Amino acid sequence: MTDSRTERGEPLVIAGRYEVQVEIGSGAFATTWRGMDRRLGRLVAIKILHAQFAHDPAYILRFEREAQAAASVSHGNVVDIYDFGRQDDLLYIVMQYVAGEDLKHLIVRERVLPPERAREIVLQILAGLGAIHAAGIVHRDIKPQNVLVGNDGQVRVADFGIARLDDRSDLTTAGTAFGTAAYMAPEQADGRDVGPWTDLYAVGVVLYELLTGTLPFTAPTAMAMMLAHMQETPEPPSMRATRWPISGDLDAVTMQALQKRPEDRFRSTTAMGQALRNASIHGSSATGTVAVTRQQPTPRPQPQPRPVPVPGRSGPPAAMASRDEGRGLSAVMRGFLVLLLVAAAVGAFYAWQVMQGDNPDAPGGPTPTVTAPATVPATSDEVIVPAEEPTATETPPAIDPEPSATTEPTPTETSVALVTPTDVAPTIEPIGPDDGTLGADDGAPQGGTIEPMPTPTVP
């Protein structure tokens, strides 16, 4: 901005009352200065359109509409408009001066704000936006640079440079995107219709930045940033928390404001403000949503090597070993019981033969001989049970002994074959019923004896 008086060192005075003093902000279309209203004796902010746009009818019309839009809203969280006019080549807007800083400078200085303070600032932004929307205005450029934070803690929404009035849709060309790419809603980036829901998306981006110190998306160009808002889904703020834990409720409010479809966002500033007030700040919430720190992913269990299958067996090795041990004990007991049953059967058979021998009138003629080994090996549990005396216990097939060169099998009507190590089984007569010796009158050779059957041992 140049003027003959400023070149001579004199302050620039607009409309005979607004003294221009110090530049406090600059944008693409205008520069804002701190000034003094000499008539009322108060500080003011003076926004002056850049000289290259001062003769463009479109920019002139937009500048005038900004002044009209801002002047139609009166709210404690919106910057007040005092005056608007033109002096020579200068188009200016005189507005309320806020002693403090814009929100962007606060973020740069503090980087991350405590959740309580972030919530309080956003609630005031929503209150100001509610008044703007009630006046039929869509701001379309909500960002930290356009939010002023006073030294008294009061937050005010400013800069209606690209605001759109509902009844002035001719200000926007169809398919044209206006706004700041980093805070632009998907429908705004795509050149589609905008509405109050568009401003709520931008508020969600501001809340995200206050909680994390970063934007939801980063991109090297404005176009790439706009595409990210249209196509990508950001991480919840709690996943990027570096200083203070962020509750699940704050995550939920932020992520709902950042939904791609306008109908999935909050219906109004009132609805979003109510959800933000009800949100728990420290971890747990009434709804049970908790996300206080970034959780490390739970490691997946490593697959355990499968045991080598054993034919006829199943289950893990420990179970198989236990089962084998049980089977070994069962086999021993079964063998012992079989031996007892065989001994009982043989004894009963001998008794029956003796009774038949004592009774000459009994059918069947002379008593048949029985071939039996002298000993029963303790290492075998396999026997052949006589066909006349079946047992209830199933036994595996017998193993025939090795044939002996000096032993000839004695033909009998019924025999019990037992496995013997090396001895040759002698041919004996049945044991007597009383003393266990051969009877002299039973037709056996004199002097013959029988060795008692040893007690089977369990391996």
Structure notes:
This protein has helices spanning 4-7, 57-71, 103-110, 115-134, 186-189, 196-212, 222-231, 248-257, 269-278, 317-358; strands at residues 12-14, 18-26, 30-37, 42-49, 81-87, 90-96, 100-102, 137-138, 147-150, 155-157, 164-165, 370-371, 427-428. By secondary structure, the chain is of the alpha+beta class. Strands 1-2-3-4-6-5 form a six-stranded antiparallel sheet, with helices on one face. The protein has a three-stranded antiparallel sheet with strand order 7-9-10. A two-stranded antiparallel ribbon has the order 8-11. The termini are far apart. Residues 167-176, 284-301, 310-323 and 364-450 have low confidence and may be disordered.
Could you give the order of strands across the largest sheet? 1-2-3-4-6-5
String of helices and strands: HEEEEHEEEHHEEEEHHHHHHEE
Mean pLDDT: 74
Architecture of the largest domain, according to CATH? Orthogonal Bundle
Here the CATH topology of the largest domain equals Transferase(Phosphotransferase), domain 1
- The coarse silhouette is rod-shaped
Count of structural domains: 3
State the helicity in percent bands.
25-40%
The CATH superfamily of the largest domain bears the name Transferase(Phosphotransferase) domain 1
Q: What is the CATH class name of the largest domain?
A: Mainly Alpha
> How many separate helices?
10
Secondary structural class: alpha+beta
**Spans where pLDDT lies below 50 across 5 or more residues:** 167-176, 284-301, 310-323, 364-450
Q: Strand percentage, roughly?
A: 5-15%
What is the CA-CA span between the terminal residues?
113 Å
Largest sheet: 6 strands, antiparallel
Instruction: Tally the beta strands.
Output: 13
Radius of gyration, CA atoms, in whole angstroms: 53 Å
